[in-house]
């Protein structure tokens, strides 16, 4: 294949601009000017440097491309047209109901989109994950190209990514920064000061190249330099103009996210509508060597009654899973001695990614690894996963299959105090689209659920406990996602206590105490918080008329909400009571914490007695 | 007051170490070694450089101090003892139930703690907010000193702060970095390579000084250099040893967060228990000139029926509030043309803080400004506030009074697609301890609630809508926090529709449509999502037996949960149904989006009819 000439690339770039203007005009919205600044960068990348078989997006040798400035989607879709992937009719469906050409790109119907973008500062961190996969796992020489905006370099997540990529010497990663000087509401902090970006990136271990982002030959040299730089990631800092090519839009404020005012004149000024085609170089033949291992999964087994923390069981089960499956990788936020992924790190060092204290980068790297076919488990304290909330939200938009484990859930951690307590994590993960939220109470249950998550699509979350808990179940018990365990039940049950995790033991003790005074209670271990076992809850409601939830979490969005939602179908609803953490905890022993929060055995027993009395009265 | 000699400071530092070892040993937990590395830094800062009247924490001239590495709380409390603020008996209550000496410091009972720390990477961003207050608003020459760990420099939020401080030339801010080489689970990325940190910080516009963190004279020179550096913030990079002073702990891995194994021997090795006192320099006389303005609040008024977006009303009301109250400040994440805080920026430029696309830094700066007595409103897209989840969580631990406004809530934004839609924000903010969550449906309501939030303690959240909505209420209507508005009601009501924000209009239209076929519905505008108007909901339940919630949010943790929680008191629960956004939206017009999500007029009407039929059947 003959490479396109500079002149041909310039004309392609103009076509990308024209099509960007056209689609935004047709849609009545969309980011025309942000597309126009990057058109030359895109044309040169596609025409000369990217190696990608668009017919086979799964080709292991394909270079990867992420449009981190996802609002420049018109440019991406215009490129798809130039590549012959979509036709002009489809192009003009941009931003309409049912079109796969969404306002910001998502992979749900576009096989060429790696991950959803649109929340700025995420493309580079995810690209780091892909580059890590290429370098450390696939060992295939693909490159990862990320087209960034300049505004988004203000996000701390970009500097987590810069640090990670620099330290890991990811020379297969290139950031192309479209420095168009203008953000959404006006000038960026650094304007056209390319050196400001260069200094920062160099300090983080990057090679940088500055160029005129509208000079096709200069861009070509810069991208070639990126490809030939060894031992360092490269950032191509391109000076560009927003709205480039149209005099009354070029470098002007107030035009972000809008169609041009006079699209017909603009199209004429840009040279008119064309239908040029662009060919992309094929990737070299490649074979990925990390085929899933055939090993039989041997989960750890715990004797009934054995005292072991669910976080330890998590670490052991994950290690076993890693032995059975070569696609399983683990990431940690510099707390592997607490989350207990240190065992995985020891046994599978090549598949363990230390992300240091950078939870956004950790989740982003997981998304990047998942996009490359791996099954990532990323772990930190439940409390600190809130740092990555936006990345988890966007991972759901991407349809990414990632698993997250949050340790040190709830007040039960004890002395460390509220800063370290995950008390909002169930609310956060439950609200994520298509998520699975699990909260095991013992080691065997944990082990089973760690394995089950590997097969589960979407965002999986497992909540673990710091302290030791007795193994309640035998090692052969099964725990399907969406299920629950009825631990006590009789025809005389007057109240159902619904617990999960650390409160299961409290619920059982309370039930025993109540049985002594003649009050029979049903006890449900609701380890699958989402999806929830509606059938079992409904039966309990019918039999006992009242459900008391007890959770080591805030009252909002957690276990109590999960149970309520199970009855939000217009049918009869049982009486409901939520015991949850309503105060701001301080330091105390785990036992004192549960007592202070009113979620221990005594509080449960007292609540049940009160309910029974109310029921008698009413 | 005579300054302590180098020798005296060295002895004070040893006492801080001894007391750190003692309290961790007594508690059986706590971060002794992380305290020991920073003891000399703390002694020199307190003895020679900090200017603070500990008897008057509110003194406007006081320097501010933040222990960003909050796990080194033993060092902080040992310092309080050396300053005579607490006695040895209290010191030994460390980490016990009811003690104000918590595992990680919080300001709830300690007047000398500015903000809660313990989630790493937050102290410096908050310090930037305080330094901005000092420089731009108070115009008092206090300095802000932040003692950071080295591990936490991996957090992106630290680099958002570095960028903000460097760009704003905050020479009243000093970061003292305790580079002890060891994180929680092992060595940090850069170990003792002080230059690695210096290069990065310098690139972000900081002055840096490197020193031996155990050489009192060298520390003194470094801090003096920080104080005398103009036009730039300074980072003092101190090479230290974790566990310094005790041979079998010094510079060793595996000792993070634990008491020393042989505390008595360690104390002896450190020179034994002493009871030395340290005096801190008094601040200069100072007066803050920003006394609250006396202006009468004139909120904007909208005619009934006027079409205006609640985000616009937010911007207008905030501007009016700023005119009436000099303590009101606004922060924005580079989207002020969307959140509509641009009007505030124009009218009160000195009190507007552009934070660029760095939501963590934005919220942290708000916390810092609130700590200095200001009333901050921070705004971005609701979706992007998820970036700052951990900062919001920690602000609640701090007891901070900050207000956040999230625009572009829900699918109703239309074409931009899911990356820009706030669909999890209600769940996130409701789960935050002590929060207030408001979701107005019209302009007059918005204006009133913006003003009401100013008086409300804790974390306040206001959710605004992108598109125009008609003013439903007159300008004299009042909307107390915790209230609701019953918009339709009759004795014949068979179902209650509970809506908020953009779904209120849909609910009213559905009710009108249903009235035509003889089905009377009650309609409640539940603008106060937390706290929720339990009395009105209960009355509606008693009268109609069934509550249908309709929300432009995920089914979990939002309006539906708020209504369910109102009935989680063990009393009878009405039939409940939740209409919410259950699919992953794409691009479409706002009307199409509401229809696709099943939360529009037609969906509500259909659901009510179904419920009425079920009720007839059952």
UniProtKB/TrEMBL annotation, chains A, B:
GO terms for molecular function: magnesium ion binding; thiamine pyrophosphate binding; transketolase activity. It comes from the Bacteria. InterPro entries: THDP-binding (IPR029061), Transketo_C/PFOR_II (IPR009014), Transketolase-like (IPR051424), Transketolase-like_Pyr-bd (IPR005475), Transketolase_BS (IPR020826), Transketolase_C (IPR033248), Transketolase_N (IPR005474). One of its GO terms (cellular component) is cytoplasm. SMART domains: Transket_pyr. It is an enzyme of class 2 (transferase). SUPFAM superfamilies: Thiamin diphosphate-binding fold (THDP-binding), TK C-terminal domain-like. The keyword RNA-binding does not apply. Pfam families: Transket_pyr, Transketolase_C, Transketolase_N. Homodimer. Belongs to the transketolase family. This is Transketolase. It comes from Streptomyces mesophilus.
């Amino acid at each position: 294949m003959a490479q396109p000439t500079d002149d041909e690339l310039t004309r392609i770039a103009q076509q990308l601009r024209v099509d960007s203007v056209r689609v935004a005009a047709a849609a009545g919205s969309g980011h025309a000017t942000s597309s126009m600044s990057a058109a030359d960068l895109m044309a040169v990348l596609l025409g000369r440097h990217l190696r990608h078989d668009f017919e086979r997006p799964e080709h292991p040798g394909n270079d990867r491309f992420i449009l981190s400035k996802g609002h420049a989607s018109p440019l991406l879709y215009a490129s798809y047209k130039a590549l012959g992937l979509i036709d002009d009719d489809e192009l003009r469906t941009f931003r309409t109901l049912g079109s796969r050409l969404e306002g910001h790109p998502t992979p749900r119907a576009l096989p060429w989109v790696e991950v959803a973008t649109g929340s700025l500062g995420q493309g580079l961190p995810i690209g780091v994950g892909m580059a890590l996969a290429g370098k450390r796992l696939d060992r295939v020489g693909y490159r990862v190209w990320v087209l960034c905006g300049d505004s988004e370099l203000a996000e701390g997540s970009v500097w987590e990514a810069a640090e990670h990529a620099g330290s890991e010497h990811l020379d297969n990663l290139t950031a192309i920064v479209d420095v168009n000087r203008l953000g959404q509401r006006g000038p960026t902090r650094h304007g056209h000061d390319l050196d400001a970006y260069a200094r920062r990136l160099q300090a983080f271990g990057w090679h940088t190249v500055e160029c005129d982002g509208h000079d096709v030959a200069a861009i070509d040299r810069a991208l070639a330099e990126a490809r030939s730089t060894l031992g360092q990631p490269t950032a191509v800092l391109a000076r560009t103009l927003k709205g480039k090519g149209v005099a009354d839009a070029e470098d002007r404020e107030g035009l972000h996210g809008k169609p041009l005012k006079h699209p017909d004149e603009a199209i004429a000024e840009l040279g008119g509508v064309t239908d040029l085609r662009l060919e992309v170089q094929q990737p070299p033949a490649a074979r990925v060597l990390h085929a899933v291992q055939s090993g039989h999964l041997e989960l750890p087994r715990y004797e009934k009654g054995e005292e072991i923390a669910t976080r330890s069981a998590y670490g052991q089960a994950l290690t076993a899973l890693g032995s059975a499956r070569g696609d399983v990788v683990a990431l940690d936020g510099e707390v592997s001695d607490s989350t207990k992924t240190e065992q995985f790190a020891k046994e599978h060092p090549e598949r363990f990614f230390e992300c240091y204290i950078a939870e956004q980068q950790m989740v982003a790297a997981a998304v990047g690894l998942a996009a490359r076919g791996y099954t990532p488990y990323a772990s930190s304290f439940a409390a600190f996963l809130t740092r990555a909330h936006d990345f988890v939200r966007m991972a759901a938009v991407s349809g990414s299959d990632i698993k997250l484990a949050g340790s040190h859930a709830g007040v039960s951690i004890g002395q460390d105090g509220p800063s370290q307590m995950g008390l909002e994590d169930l609310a956060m993960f439950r609200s994520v689209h298509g998520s699975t939220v699990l909260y095991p109470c013992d080691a065997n249950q944990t082990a089973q659920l760690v394995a089950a998550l590997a097969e589960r699509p979407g965002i999986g979350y497992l909540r673990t406990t710091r302290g030791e808990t007795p193994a309640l179940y035998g090692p052969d018990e099964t725990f399907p996602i969406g299920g629950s365990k009825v631990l006590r039940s009789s025809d005389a049950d007057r109240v159902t206590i619904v617990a999960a995790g650390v409160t299961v033991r409290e619920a059982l003790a309370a039930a025993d105490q109540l049985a002594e005074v003649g009050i029979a209670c049903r006890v449900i271990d609701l380890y699958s918080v989402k999806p929830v076992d509606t059938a079992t809850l409904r039966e309990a409601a019918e039999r006992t008329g009242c459900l008391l939830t007890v959770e080591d979490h805030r009252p909002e969005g957690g276990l109590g909400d999960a149970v309520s939602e199970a009855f939000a179908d217009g049918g009869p609803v049982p009486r409901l009571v939520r015991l949850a953490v309503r105060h701001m905890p301080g330091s105390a022993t785990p036992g004192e914490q549960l007592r202070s929060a009113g979620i221990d055995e005594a509080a449960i027993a007292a609540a049940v007695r009160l309910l029974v009395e109310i029921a008698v009265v009413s």
